[in-house]
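Summary of Year 1 activities. Much of the first year was spent building the evaluation harness for sequence design. The harness presents a backbone, in tokenized form, and records the residue chosen at every position. We chose the following record to illustrate the format because it has been used consistently in internal testing since the harness was completed.
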């Protein structure tokens, strides 16, 4: 369902862009030539079509928001991070690197020996 609404949403966006570009502006616009309709009639038809496409675009935007809200099921990103079990408090965050070596060990390297006890 979400894919269908998203596809319609994208088509509406492209149609709205095309209709806005066809409208006459101060400089003339793409629909400046003569034709079966007068300039005034074409402007009214394109204005109405723009309003219809805009209303449909807003409706699909709201529909996509509702679908996304239903899929989330009330979970939050913050809830997911705080509920994750923490490791032991005394474990180091990163393994110690040998002196002079700035790169971490790779799979082919020998295990890092612990530093000598004082």
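For this record, the design step produced the sequence shown next.
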């Amino acid at each position: 369902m979400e894919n269908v609404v998203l596809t319609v949403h994208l088509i509406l966006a492209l149609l709205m862009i095309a209709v806005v570009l066809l409208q006459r502006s101060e400089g003339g616009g793409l629909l400046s030539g003569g034709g079966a309709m007068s300039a005034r009639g074409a402007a009214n038809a394109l204005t109405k079509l723009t309003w219809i496409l805009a209303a449909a675009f807003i409706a699909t935007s709201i529909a996509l928001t509702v679908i996304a809200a239903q899929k989330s099921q009330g979970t939050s990103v913050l809830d997911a991070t705080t509920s994750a079990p923490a490791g032991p408090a005394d474990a180091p965050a990163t393994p110690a690197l040998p002196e002079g070596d700035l790169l971490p060990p790779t799979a082919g390297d020998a295990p890092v020996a612990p530093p000598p006890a004082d």
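The mean pLDDT is 75. Quantitative recovery figures across the full test set are reported in Table 2.
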